[in-house]
């Protein structure tokens, strides 16, 4: 059976309808993969990584060389799972109490162009008091990252791609669930083998499914799951995947793409949080084919959407929903000159994968088979991590 027919069969079983919205806590919900890899073929492949990043591959360090901040945390303050390379701490005590007050501002609807439906929070994470900056530095220091490489074949030509940013991913599609109810130590899940993946409806063990064996899925750690739950309440959308991208400088980028993969359903909602350096977020409408046997009239040309640029600042969040992914492309372009050294940016995107192929896709393009990287606070760069023996 072909991959296409397999995915269609999954949709027949799982349903291809849009996610059912939850009740929002405020009236701002008029309601990747944002900053994730698009495999749907939008005519432009992702940019290759700049050559200077090759220095990271040759140097390995152990955890003793990564200087952690002073902490009084105990074992209950970490998320753990066998598929994590190391345990991941919960949000710092200074940040956790602020979560109930987010979003800091109501979302602004942007839907004044054809097929466009955005909800823009400026900001979502409070910038006052340094909350957005603290969250950026915490996630950069505490999450495992990867520099994924892969080969594509287009038009009979094979091209090797090295992803031009650092990536990581957590989550599981709608058809299944982890055997433990949470990745945190106080999960209340009654114990059990945390490596098992169960069918969401029957409870049958599906850990050996081909879509779960190439890469071991892992639950969203509490520090990111807290933000996911907040985003769900603010937007009325449901999410089961979290993709995190770290742009080390203005040289890291993502080219124009759309997150319109079949495993996301026909009208996917994707929430993207920006932390760290301000970066331009560009959107443009996909090419509109001319009518059969003719060309666009002047009126039709005037109706075609104009490009859009949003200067995403630290703490901002943008929700792309409705027909946006099916009709628009988005990108984070490179920055050159004095703007290239910008201190780095993290983008966190939440989305909902409906079927098993989505799980395999996200781990393939955001984890892969290469080394784990962790932020080195001494040298202030991502460096390969290995477990202490």
Characterise the protein shown here.
The protein has 389 residues and is an alpha+beta fold. The chain has a single domain, classed as Alpha-ketoglutarate-dependent dioxygenase AlkB-like (Jelly Rolls). Helix content is 16%, strand content 24%. The protein has seven helices and 20 strands. Strands 4-5-16-13-18-11-8 form a seven-stranded antiparallel β-sheet, sandwiched between helices. A hairpin with an 8-residue loop joins strand 2 and strand 3. The chain is globular. The protein starts with a helix and ends with a strand. It comes from Apiospora phragmitis. This is DNA repair family protein. InterPro entries: AlkB-like (IPR027450), AlkB-like_sf (IPR037151), ALKBH2 (IPR032852), Oxoglu/Fe-dep_dioxygenase_dom (IPR005123).
């Amino acid at each position: 059976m072909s991959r296409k027919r397999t995915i269609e069969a999954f949709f027949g079983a799982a349903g291809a309808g849009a996610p059912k919205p939850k009740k929002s806590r405020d009236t701002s919900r008029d309601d990747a993969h944002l900053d994730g890899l698009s495999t749907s073929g939008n005519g432009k492949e992702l940019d290759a990584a700049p050559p200077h990043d090759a220095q990271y591959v040759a140097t390995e360090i152990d955890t003793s060389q990564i200087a952690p901040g002073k902490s009084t945390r105990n074992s209950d303050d970490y998320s753990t799972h066998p598929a994590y390379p190391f345990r991941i701490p919960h949000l710092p005590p200074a940040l956790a109490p602020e979560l109930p007050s987010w979003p800091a501002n109501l979302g602004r609807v942007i839907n004044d162009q054809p097929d466009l439906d955005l909800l823009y929070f400026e900001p979502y994470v409070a910038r006052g008091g340094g909350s957005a900056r603290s969250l950026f530095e915490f996630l950069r220091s505490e999450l495992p990252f990867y520099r994924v490489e892969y080969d594509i074949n287009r038009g009979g030509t094979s091209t090797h791609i090295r992803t031009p940013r650092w990536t990581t991913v957590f989550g599981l599609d709608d058809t299944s669930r982890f055997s433990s109810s949470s990745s945190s130590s106080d999960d209340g899940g009654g114990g059990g083998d945390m490596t098992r993946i169960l069918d969401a409806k029957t409870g049958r063990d599906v850990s050996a499914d081909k879509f779960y064996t190439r890469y071991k899925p892992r639950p969203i750690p509490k520090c990111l799951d807290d933000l996911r739950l907040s985003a769900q309440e603010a937007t009325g959308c449901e999410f089961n995947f979290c993709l995190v991208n770290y742009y080390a400088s203005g040289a890291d980028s993502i080219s124009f793409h759309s997150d319109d993969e079949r495993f996301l359903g026909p009208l996917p909602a994707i929430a993207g949080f920006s932390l760290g350096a301000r970066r331009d977020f560009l959107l443009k409408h996909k090419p509109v084919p001319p009518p059969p046997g003719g060309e666009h009239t002047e009126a039709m040309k005037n109706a075609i959407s104009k490009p859009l640029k949003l200067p995403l600042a630290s703490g901002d969040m943008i929700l792309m929903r409705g027909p946006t992914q099916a009709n628009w492309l988005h990108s984070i372009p490179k920055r050159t000159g004095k703007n290239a050294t910008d201190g780095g940016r993290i983008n966190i995107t939440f989305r909902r994968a409906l079927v098993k192929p989505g799980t395999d896709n996200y781990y393939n393009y955001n984890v892969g088979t290469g080394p784990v990287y962790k932020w080195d606070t001494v040298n202030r760069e991502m460096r390969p991590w290995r477990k202490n023996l």
